[in-house]
Amino acid sequence: MPLYEHVFVARQDVSSSQVEALAESFAKVVTDNGGSVTKTESWGLRNLAYRIKKNRKGHYVHFNLDAPVIAISELERNQRINEDIIRYLTIKVEELNAGPSIMMQVKAAREERARREGTGRYDRDRRDRDERETEEPAAAAAPAGDAA
């Protein structure tokens, strides 16, 4: 069977659990039509390059599909009907990558770098708290003889 990569973008006001339910229902459409979903990745809520149907952000979901053309056409028909889907794109590929997609690799590298460098929000808050704690004992140890 042909191999495909498929990405769809859901509206920004749809919750993450609803996006997961949409992904499961679309995966079921593919399996009901004789295909299989080999990998599903949720890329999360991301900014769009331009406004689409009054949306500035969208929930991105990526599928690796091993499916006949009939399953792909049915999947795209269902996404065209669904009001929560802003855009979708299906690309035929020679082989499917078993590892994480480029988007997930970049996200993992960014998180690793933030953890290593201590530039994440949690690390910034912890660093600020540590600085305040080191300043307080210094202020308490100031000589009291200056008032004399």
Structure write-up:
It is a single chain. The protein has 148 residues and is of the alpha+beta class. The protein has 2 domains: 3-98, Alpha-Beta Plaits; 104-137, no CATH class. 45% of the residues lie in helices and 32% in strands. The protein contains 4 helices and 4 strands; from the N terminus they run βαββαβαα. A 4-stranded antiparallel sheet has the order 2-3-1-4. β2 (36-52) and β3 (55-66) form a beta hairpin. The longest helix is centred in the last third of the chain and has 20 residues, at 121-140. The protein starts with a strand and ends in an 8-residue tail after the last helix. The relative contact order is 0.18. The mean pLDDT is 84.
Can you give keywords for this protein?
148 residues, 2 domains, 4 helices, 4-stranded antiparallel beta sheet, single chain, Alpha-Beta Plaits, alpha+beta
Topology of this protein?
Blueprint: E1 3-11, H1 16-32, E2 36-52, E3 55-66, H2 69-81, E4 85-93, H3 102-117, H4 121-140
Antiparallel strand pairs: 1-3, 1-4, 2-3
Helix pairs in contact: 1-2
